[in-house]
Design goal:
Chains A, B: It is found in: Cytoplasm. Chains A, B: It catalyses: N(2)-formyl-N(1)-(5-phospho-beta-D-ribosyl)glycinamide + L-glutamine + ATP + H2O = 2-formamido-N(1)-(5-O-phospho-beta-D-ribosyl)acetamidine + L-glutamate + ADP + phosphate + H(+). 2 copies of one chain form a homodimer. The first copy, chain A, is α+β, with helices and mostly antiparallel strands. Helices cover 37% and strands 19% of the residues of chain A. The two termini of chain A are 23 Å apart. Strand 1 of chain A pairs antiparallel with strand 1 of chain B, so a sheet runs across the interface.
Chain lengths: 73, 73
């Protein structure tokens, strides 16, 4: 997701469109990316550390984006 | 996220780049979007139904994408 201090024009566009479509009560919208990564074998701590490294080096731009990694079996 | 039967060239590009960066063991990558929506007041069933409707009509393209809605307090 874009860091809180980073402008997010896509999110703002969505937020602007919502009232026109009849949706109210939304105070903020942020748009980011989501990656679903399928792995071979067991998710060990070492594998998870590798996925964190992927997220940091390839999947996100750490200058402007935060990321979280979560595991689904 | 793109539906399973939909081609995902961005995900495939990421998957192709991973071995070149030294990451192994990844069998599939899918790239989609994530929206963080802040709401005014309590998240009731009615509000949640409205957010589902937003996801279906504005935030996703239901022809090619699936979506899930989850609540974080």
């Amino acid at each position: 997701m874009p860091k809180p201090e980073i402008l997010d024009p896509q999110g703002k566009a969505v937020q602007g469109a919502l009232p026109r479509l009849g949706f109210t009560g939304v105070t903020d919208v942020r748009q980011g990316k989501r990656f679903e990564i399928e792995l071979d074998g067991e998710v060990t701590d070492a594998v998870l550390a590798q996925v964190e490294k992927m997220a940091e080096t390839l999947l996100s731009n750490p200058v402007i984006e935060n990321y979280t990694v979560s595991v689904e079996q």
